[in-house]
Design goal:
The chain is an alpha+beta fold. The chain is built from six helices and eight strands; from the N terminus they run ββαααβββαβαββα. Bound molecules: coenzyme A.
Length: 183
Amino acid sequence: MTPEGETARLLLRPLALADAAQFQQLFPRWEVVRYLLDIVPWPYPADGALRFIRDAALPAVARGDAWHWTLRLKNQPEQIIGHLDLRRGREDNRGFWIGLPWQNRGLMSEACLWSNDFWFDELGFKTMRVSKAAANAASRRISEKLGMRLVCTIEKNYVSGRLPTEIWEITADEWRSWKAAHL
Ligand SMILES: CC(C)(COP(=O)(O)OP(=O)(O)OC[C@H]1O[C@@H](n2cnc3c(N)ncnc32)[C@H](O)[C@@H]1OP(=O)(O)O)[C@@H](O)C(=O)NCCC(=O)NCCS
């Protein structure tokens, strides 16, 4: 069960099949996909968003293995601006992207503050781990800014090729301490 979420500027709505058309309009941009894992097909097919939502995301949600949201601005709730998901597993518990017109406004950091609370307080996980291409400066900055620790560097295959990859981690206790110090 994926609940709705709300931050100062954003609504997080559970991903639905009806979101496929807007998802398809925003997502297939090189700047959005280049540092995503090479499970993302590229060039992106015309039904890529529909297949992702119908065949991967919603079944994972139904199994209780993942939680997926579209991001929307509160003052324009009909427009999808990005996507965030949380997943069970040891190494890659969160994924996100935001459409080019809305990048670098602090919006994904804001969404992650909410989703970290959901992960630790509602779902009750003890640790969150995320992985990202070391070259992905914006994503890296979000981990750094929100109190995560760099655990190790490995390599993974991305849409743009095989790249050094950082694993970042934060525990529930560290998250609560970070919030007490920063919010
Ligand atoms: C990663 C992504 C979701 C960030 O979303 P966003 O809403 O732009 O992020 P925010 O504005 O909350 O924070 C980005 C931070 O990175 C910084 N940043 C952005 N580009 C940067 C760059 N080239 N070098 C250094 N820092 C950079 C910003 O200044 C900001 O930090 P600050 O708040 O300290 O100023 C967005 O860039 C994106 O969709 N990228 C493509 C998809 C992707 O790579 N997803 C992540 C896969 S791990």
